[in-house]
């Protein structure tokens, strides 16, 4: 075997061994729920910043709400009252309408959504003044607040929220707790209990192989050891010569 082929094989091995693992994570939550806010602000947000390349994060703002149709209208009842129905619609419309900023490559759609949802959940808990949709949009340079607001006050917002209700019902009907965290679009009671208590640990448990950020956490799958790479190199070189 030529040196060139050996180098190629090693390159492929290293790339495969250290490829980023990624997992879908769905967050079922309510816009005015204190438990949802505590989870998103204190656990999900810092973990999502640290593990931005390891999650396909999806927010589903509906929770324990319900809806019924009356003619062409969709009427909602929400866990924390009518104000939460409006707040849920703002979230639903923001998730649909937020776009990345082409002039600021770091402000991707995913980054802006995470920042906006985190801001809404934190500031809505102040329970003073109007819902912070505009305030959070201005803070995070989301320039289409008017579009989001119009959506939330129209049938478009109702339609988007209804879709999130249908998606929630596909996971559990009724939803047992808020927030609910589902890895790989599947509810697992053990994952749920761990994720609410320690989201970072639950995430690492579901990432295989585990990235370096997970080292030392219980249940994390070990990355390929450097010893294995050295052993493989020795075998290849022995056979080549």
Describe this structure in words.
It is built from ten helices and five strands; from the N terminus they run αβαβββαααααβααα. The chain is mainly alpha-helical and 241 residues long. The strands form two sheets. Strands 2-1-5 form a three-stranded mixed sheet. Strand 3 (66-70) and strand 4 form a beta hairpin. Helix 1 (3-17) packs antiparallel against helix 10 and helix 2 runs antiparallel to helix 4. The longest helix has 17 residues, at 34-50. Residues 6-18 and 223-238 have low confidence and may be disordered.
Q: Major β-sheet, in short?
A: 3 strands, mixed
The secondary-structure element order is: HEHEEEHHHHHEHHH
Mean pLDDT: 86
Q: Which regions are unreliable across 5 or more consecutive residues at pLDDT < 50? A: 6-18, 223-238
Q: What share of residues are in beta strands? A: 5-15%
* Helix proportion: 40-55%
Structural class: mainly alpha
> Taking strands numbered 1, 2, ... along the chain, how are they ordered across the largest sheet?
2-1-5
The count of helical stretches stands at 10
- Globally, the shape reads globular
Rg is 22 Å
Number of strands: 5
Straight-line N-to-C gap: 8 Å
């Amino acid at each position: 075997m030529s040196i060139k082929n050996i180098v190629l094989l090693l390159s492929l091995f290293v790339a495969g061994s250290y490829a980023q693992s990624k997992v879908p994570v769905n967050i079922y939550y309510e816009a005015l729920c204190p438990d949802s806010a505590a989870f998103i602000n204190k656990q999900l947000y810092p973990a999502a910043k640290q593990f931005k390349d390891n999650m396909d994060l999806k927010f589903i703002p509906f929770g324990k709400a319900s809806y019924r149709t009356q003619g062409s209208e969709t009427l909602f009842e929400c866990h924390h009252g009518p104000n939460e129905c409006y707040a849920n619609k703002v979230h639903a419309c923001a998730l649909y309408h937020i776009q990345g900023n082409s002039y600021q490559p770091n402000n991707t759609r995913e980054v802006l959504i995470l920042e906006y949802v985190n801001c809404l959940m934190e500031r809505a808990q102040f329970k003073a003044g109007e819902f912070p949709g505009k305030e959070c949009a201005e803070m995070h340079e989301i320039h289409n607040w008017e579009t989001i607001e119009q959506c939330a006050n129209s049938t478009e917002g109702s339609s988007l929220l209804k879709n999130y209700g249908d998606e929630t019902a596909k996971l559990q009907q009724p939803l047992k707790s808020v927030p609910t965290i589902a890895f790989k679009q599947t509810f697992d009671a053990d994952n749920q209990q761990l994720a609410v208590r320690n989201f970072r640990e639950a995430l690492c448990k579901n990432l295989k192989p585990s990235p370096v950020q997970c080292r030392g956490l219980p249940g994390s799958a070990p990355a390929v050891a450097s010893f294995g790479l050295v052993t493989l190199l020795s075998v290849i070189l022995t056979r080549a010569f």
